[in-house]
Records
---
Amino acid sequence: MIEIDAELIKNILRKNRRIDNRAFDTYRDVSIEKGIITSAEGSARVKLGDTEVVAGIKMDIGEPYPDSPDEGVIIVGAELVPLASPEFEAGPPREEAIEIARVVDRAIRESKVIDLKKLCITPNEKVWMLFVDIDILNDDGNLFDASGIAAMAALLNTRMPELDENQKPVRDKKGTEPLPIDGIAISTTFAKIDNTIITDPNLAEMKSLDARLTVGTLKKGDETLLCSMQKGGNVGFSMEEIEKIIDMAIEKGEELREMLK
Amino acid sequence: MEEQLIKNGIRYDGRKFDELRPIEAKVGILKNADGSAMFRLGNTVAIAGVFGPRKVFPKHEEEVDKAVLRARYVMAPFATSDRGRPGPSRRSTEISMVTRKALIPIIFLDEFPKTAIDLHIEVLEADASTRIAGINAASLALADAGVPMRDLVCACSAGKVQGHVVLDIAGKEDTEGELDLPVAYYPKKKQITLLQMDGIAKNEEVKAIIKLALKGCEKVYEAQKNALKSRYGIEEEHKSEKVIE
């Protein structure tokens, strides 16, 4: 088991430093590789420091939800693969994996970057189902942002399968048409430890944090908008802290968005 | 053409922008639970029941230095217009988790090592903002169970509907509005213990929406205190204390 001494992390922060020597508002190195899985319609591997995740997109034909008969369906799943951490166990997804999937889903869905109406084939009957599956391969903290970047990169990398005469997806040939995407949604995560706010918490910092806030942003024209938020951790935030984090999220979201272009 | 949900500064259900739906809060509504409460916001109704602090089963969930709070939010199958599937879903698992984290800061968990405090929330009627009603009922049920607490947690939602910032999102405002933002608040410490957001808005709008939700929380807090006072007859208790002196 990984033993993290929260007191050590706090002591370092009190000296205005972080355990990996980053500035409070700096992300770890981000690397994005697209199209790494040939069997998937779209894919990406993202490394955020030593955190590593793979996102794969599969598309199929299905029925729309009754309350949105002319829209395609997005389903996001996240798997904390047991090889990613001695603390992860095999079995059905637990709270932590469900939260990651729902936070990633929320940023993509609420930002409306994917035009779901264009994924409708026959209203009430046939629509594209877009499955976004995220495999966490190595956990060094901030799985939220790594997963969000990987999902977005994989969606941008996706080519929709062609349909045969029976309107079934052609499996043995790669499609050419990209997804109807307009804009890039990005999640940025901040942690509060004692009373210090830090960007992109690594695993040691995740395990020592009091409170956490993930903020989704999106760019429309020249303006950056917010599209989702999720608080975590067992301590509250003051209004001032939240205002500060929102401002930082807009700035950091911009940096990450540049990398996805 | 989409339905107009706001006309001349009035919302489709007749409320002003900064008006909550009618609140009803009752404490001590169930016999078997150690503590229980009901919280209603218009047509959204949640009940909460608390057992504990009690022994932890399964035992591996036990913590040696504090009590564990276990929260379970469930929506009854008949709570929505289309019947819901009974039992937990991914949505309810997430809401159970954020509910637990919203309440942890106020409970003296350190006082009861190796025990569990089990909190069950049942949404009986859903007309949006169900996690809000659940948290408000839960906070009262914990107090009713006599669990030592630093304060009550009060919750409220705010959002954006057809360009307007409004308090306490209800019904069609949830499905057709642009944004929904639930907040839970720990008033004595002025801390926000739950914050989620679904929907698009500008930076300054989001900040204004959070501040409006906090104003709603203050009103909920008063309703919660009144519910506890009417259950436990605070005035009379003060008199009897004087007699003891």
Note: Chain A has a mean pLDDT of 95.
---
Amino acid sequence: MDPLTLAIHATPAFVASAVEFVEATTIVLAVGVTRGWRAPLFGTLAATGTLAIVIATLGVALVAIVPEHLLKGVVGALLLLFGLRWLRKAALRFAGIVALHDEELAYQREVAELRAQGLQRKKFDWIGFLVTYKAVLLEGTEVAFIVIAFGAAGGTALTAATVGAIAAGLLVIAVGAALRQPLTMVPENWLKFGVGAMLCSFGVFWFAEALGMAWPGDALSIPLIVVAFLAASWLAVRMLKAILPQGAEVEARNV
Amino acid sequence: MFRGISSTLVGLLFEDGQLAIGALLALAITWALATSGGDAAQQIVGWVLLVMVLVLVVANLYRAGLIARARVSSARR
């Protein structure tokens, strides 16, 4: 696979998956720190196994059975809908209308809830197991969707998207394991802003391809579309800041 | 996966119906243009969709800003 194809298809999947892995890692860390590491590690492994089965059956069947143009059309439309939601929320967060997602706050809330549940040292911690299983499974299915979406072209694109997601997972898990605290240094809103633009761009690209359009330069059009989405969204953020009166952003959230 | 898709659709439809309806309308217009407009139209549908979605994003956020400003103004009164 040439480096350009790898960069185009692996980077979006890497960035988008990293956001999901950070959210899952926060919960696994919260469970591990408050209730011990055995149950959350089993929960994570069980969820990973479940995901592998789901992807091996549903994902492969989807790519192998559904005609390529139909898959691109459906995935393109879904990507656009997903991406618009991410992009809108990130723009509203940048403008101050919606509160920024706070990984430290999410971690502290999870820790408080888990402490309130109590712990019996001698028994297997089923609460810790189920909390991590559910979190990893839910965030993992989003990663699976991201991989299928970015790899909808099949072949090398699917391989690159898978590589990107695995690399993101390994990096986030390694940093989380080393620090043993929530990954607050990850600029989540910037990532969501960028990922939203990328999801929308891939959505527009796949949907038009499904309808028979040949983009100039094929996949080379994608960076151009991403830039258009980023520019329009950033313009909208500036516009939002200009619309709201000085210092009214936090006020706007609470009314 | 299905939970993610359904929560996104529900979120779009109920949290911000204008954006969901606008996006679905843009996709429908693009599809209609590609199927009824011939080969020439088929080769520009992507750009048409891109422009429609960009306008939709800016218009939707502008509307969100106006709503937030109205809320702040009425709360201050």
Note: The radius of gyration of chain A is 20 Å.
